[in-house]
Amino acid sequence: MAQDVPVCLDCKQGDTAKHGQVLEESGCGALYEAVDACMMAHRGNVSDCRREWSDFRSCHELQKQERKRKAALQGGKPDTARQK
In terms of domain of life, where is this protein from (predicted)? Predict the structure, then answer.
């Protein structure tokens, strides 16, 4: 069974600088750091980090909804592609 793995659509594989920037802009960076620390402490065992993942996913979803809401108010589409 495949595990749920967060995907950074704005990140390029191996580009950790871009990944960090996207996380910081998302407002969920601190929660992702908690996930990362938990995963390191538990040797990648996702089940031991359910709360951290849940908190991060909730934040990510709220940020996504906020971007959609702002775009709707401006009469445009959500900003899904970050400027380079």
Answer: Eukaryota
Note the pLDDT tens digit of each residue in 50-70. 999 999 999 989 998 998 898
Distances (CA, A) of 82 to 5, 9, 18, 44, 51: 21, 10, 10, 29, 28
Q: Where are the domains of the chain?
A: 17-74
Looking at every residue in the chain, the average pLDDT score rounds to 78
Residue 61 to residue 66: CA distance in whole angstroms: 9
Q: Which of 14, 4, 20 is nearest to 82 (CA)?
A: 20
Distance of CA 68 to the CA centre of its chain: 16
